[in-house]
Design goal:
The complex is a heterodimer of chains A (252) and B (517). Helix content of chain A is 25%, strand content 16%. Chain A has helices at 2-11, 46-50, 75-79, 116-122, 138-144, 178-190, 202-206, 237-247; strands at residues 33-35, 56-59, 62-66, 85-87, 102-103, 126-132, 158-160, 169-173, 196-200, 228-230. In chain B, strand 9 (87-89), helix 2 (99-109) and strand 10 (112-114) form a beta-alpha-beta unit. Chain B has 517 residues and is an alpha+beta fold. In chain B, strands 1, 3, 4, 7 and 8 form a 5-stranded mixed sheet that branches. Chain B has a 4-stranded antiparallel sheet with strand order 2-16-17-18.
């Protein structure tokens, strides 16, 4: 018992100051990409060609990025002859609408809060059921860590629960494999209404690296409406936490 | 009857296809059985719809089955192939460890291993040779996962418990069927395939711009392990030697991955027996290891670090100092947190003698990694088939004898300790010859085969690449350690309390997507 207490003191307090403090991310962290379209040269489509998932397209002379497909591999940043693409340190990537994830320049708009009535229901207590549907266990792992002492998601009244019957919504990771489609739909149906739907990670948003495979559904919104998209491969735990807190209006 | 019929190659050493022995099926069987009798283990057994001579000629009538065996005692892998049509006599009757491979061959290529005792699909997808299906399923019908015959025990007080695919925790999907008598489990059967994303098919005609991303997400918690196996294979085919510094940084990433996952597992094991101090400390400490990987490459799982030709990110002096400081601190934390486990009677009482596997069973099933070493079987690619930075520095193999949850937990702690010393040693003595990737890699050797093995944190990762005339993959076989070990979990559950399932499961902590591909 004394050893346990001594160890408790040694391990110290681990919970980060978030929101409130500015979290410290590694300097090589790749967050929100910023595209300086003024640098794009006519006829150049280098970034489009190197992108493994078709996240970049050219609209006229401008490169447009879809961070719902992006794997944050920085292949485009390295390949761009004009230095027009830079991955910033900004970890705030979640959005309410699929189209908000597609932008050029620095025009990204982070997720807006749910309307007041829904927030009255979920604002102080949100129970989520996680479904892995072809996720590689990286997204799952970084959802799981939200429950550790470091992020301590419980302090916001948010909890991941064991049954959809106990849940206010689902959080899905993975591209939704054909073999998981029915299980995802059944879990969704088993969640009482009103219910929230969150797609976390490039796979759940668009299919990610598996986009176009006959074995997958190219993301959750091919099946059901999604309320929150959290990009990343995998999204940093802070990106997920920030997204959910924005949805609940706890970060503005 | 001797193993000279098998070609011997080193880890990540290319072999021209004209040197690959293509034996008749009888000789092939004898050679594989003889090799296993001498202590080899089956690292891969897979098919491709082609004939292999000097080159690969695609065929819809002939499937070439290739066996890859690891001879740890000789430091080599042994390979051979045989051509079959729609059926062949199963190896499983002679070598139990072939059982899942032969089910996979049946499912992928519609080839029936005659006499296989439990021939069922493993991933529930359509076969790759139209019109050939060993279960005679109509072609226009969808295949539903988990819809199959399960092993059943009958009797008045026997009942069945079905769990999944969606589980109570934040974990990947799979379906479990327990045959129980009261609390006691007679048998557990695990049916997977829910995570099947079609990776192997998508790798054909690679390498291309998506290949490395498939590899990094094969089993996302093993990004460094699989990326290393892939890069070793590609570099071998391209005849490209990377710098010693890049090899060391790759090995550091691999060992950080091991530390992170082992620490997480120790925490989860503690949680499963209701010992919360270690559970909560290890949750945070695991993150510290992930953040060390992010310090090197910006991503907690090591994405975008290991690439053919080297590594994308170097470790400069400041980063190395920071890494060392964090490593020391985190290791001290794990030592304290894990130490509580070994000193707490209520933990030990639950770990000891739970989910026990014998050494004999372990060898028969062909288990690898932590699960095998916990049964006293000293398998470790880092010392058996060392490549890269492990050629000169081989961490000692940790084994334990009891084969129970305690052993699998304790091995993890021992390995964290050794990995800590390994990382420290490598980081302090990094070679000075540059690390950057992106060096032009020569075109891949055509008509060649390469076996690339890496000791990932779960165990042995084996990739086999075969190139065609144009130097592109005609087959890329991936064997995640989980593929070998799922059967180990099923056997470990026999005669256990069903309430001990979470504990046993976590003591293996296997990958679903690594199995389902």
């Amino acid at each position: 018992m004394l050893k346990i207490l001594a160890e408790r003191i040694k391990q110290g307090k681990r919970t980060i100051a978030f929101p409130g403090g500015e979290p410290k991310l590694p300097d090589r962290f790749r967050g929100l990409p910023v595209i300086d379209v003024s640098r794009c040269s006519a006829g150049c489509s280098t970034c489009v060609e190197v992108c493994p998932t078709g996240a970049l397209t050219m609209t006229g002379k401008k490169a447009v990025m879809d961070i719902g497909r992006c794997l944050f591999c920085t292949g485009c940043e390295t390949a761009c002859p004009n230095g027009a693409i830079k991955f910033s340190q900004d970890f705030r990537l979640a959005a309410r609408n699929r189209n908000d994830l597609k932008f050029s320049g620095g025009g990204f708009r982070p997720a807006q809060a749910l309307d007041k009535n829904i927030r009255r229901i979920f604002g102080k207590s949100l129970k989520l059921r996680e479904i892995s549907a072809g996720g590689c266990n990286a997204c799952e792992a970084d959802v799981n860590v939200l429950g550790t002492t470091v992020f301590d998601i419980g302090r916001f009244g948010i909890q991941f629960v064991a049954s959809p019957r106990h849940a206010d919504g689902i959080l899905v990771t993975g591209p939704v494999t054909k073999n998981m489609r029915d299980a995802v739909m059944e879990t969704y149906e088993a969640t009482p209404q009103p219910r929230l739907v969150i797609a976390a990670g490039s796979c759940a948003i668009s299919g990610g690296p598996y986009i176009g495979h006959k074995e997958v559904e190219n993301g959750l919104d091919t099946l059901i409406l999604v309320d929150l998209y959290v990009p990343g491969c995998p999204p940093h735990p802070l990106t997920i936490l920030d997204g959910i807190l924005r949805l609940l209006g706890k970060i503005k | 009857m001797s193993d000279i019929k098998l070609a011997r190659i080193k880890n990540a050493e290319p072999l021209s296809l004209d040197s690959l022995p293509i034996l008749n099926t009888r000789e092939f069987q004898d050679a594989v059985i003889a090799s296993v009798a001498k202590g080899a283990r089956l690292a891969a057994l897979f098919g491709l719809p082609a004939r292999i001579g000097k080159a690969v000629s695609a065929s819809m009538d002939i499937v070439t089955i290739i066996a890859v065996l690891i001879r740890g005692d000789k430091g080599v892998t042994e390979v051979a192939g045989t051509e079959v049509k729609d059926s062949y006599p199963a190896l499983t009757g002679h070598i139990v460890q072939a059982h899942l491979f032969e089910r996979e061959i049946a499912e992928q290529w519609g080839v029936r291993p005659e006499g296989h005792p439990w021939l069922k699909p493993i991933r529930f997808h359509k076969g790759c040779r139209p019109g050939k299906d060993v279960w005679a399923r109509p072609e226009n019908e969808e295949i539903s996962p988990g819809v199959t015959d399960f092993f059943r025990v009958e009797g008045e007080e026997v009942h069945e418990v079905a769990v999944g695919p969606v589980h109570a925790g934040i974990i990947e999907p799979g379906h479990f069927r327990f045959q129980c008598h009261g609390e006691r489990v007679f048998h557990l059967e695990i049916s997977l395939g829910y995570q099947h994303r079609g990776v192997e098919n998508a790798l054909i005609n690679g390498p291309d711009k998506r290949s490395i991303h498939y590899i990094e997400t094969l089993a996302g918690d093993t990004t460094a392990g699989h990326a290393l196996a892939y890069c070793q294979a590609v570099e071998a085919l391209c005849g490209h030697k990377i710098s010693a510094r890049a090899e060391e940084i790759r090995a550091i990433a691999l060992e950080l991955e091991r530390c992170a996952n082992h620490t997480g597992d120790l925490g989860a094991l503690a949680g499963d027996v209701g010992f919360l101090p270690t559970a909560s400390y290890c949750g945070a400490l695991r993150g510290d290891f992930l953040n060390m990987t992010a310090l090197i490459c910006g991503n907690r799982f090591g994405r975008n670090l290991i690439r053919p030709g080297g590594v994308i990110f170097d470790l400069d002096g400041i980063k190395t100092d920071e890494l060392m400081a964090r490593l020391e601190k985190t290791f001290a934390g794990v030592k304290g947190a894990a130490g509580l486990l070994w000193e707490t009677q209520s933990v030990i009482a639950r770990f000891e003698d739970t989910g026990r596997l014998s050494k004999k069973m372990c060898r028969q099933l062909g288990l690898v990694g932590v699960a095998a070493r916990a049964c006293g079987v000293p398998l470790d690619i880092r010392s058996e088939l060392p490549a890269g930075a492990y050629t000169k520095n081989r961490p000692a193999v940790c084994t334990f004898k009891t084969g129970d949850v305690y052993a699998r937990a304790y091995i993890r702690w021992l390995e964290i300790e050794r990995s800590f010393h390994f990382i420290k040693d490598r980081a302090e003595n990094l070679a000075e010859d540059g690390a950057k990737a992106g060096m032009p890699v020569n075109p891949a050797r055509n008509n060649s085969l390469v076996v690339s093995c890496v000791e990932g944190w779960r165990g042995e990762i084996c990739h086999v690449a075969i190139t065609g005339d144009d130097g592109r993959f005609v087959r890329y076989k991936v064997v995640d350690p989980s593929f070998h070990n799922w059967m180990g979990l099923q056997m470990a559950l026999r005669n256990q309390q069903i309430s001990d399932f979470p504990l046993c499961n976590k003591s293996f902590n296997l990958s679903y997507c690594g199995h389902d591909l």
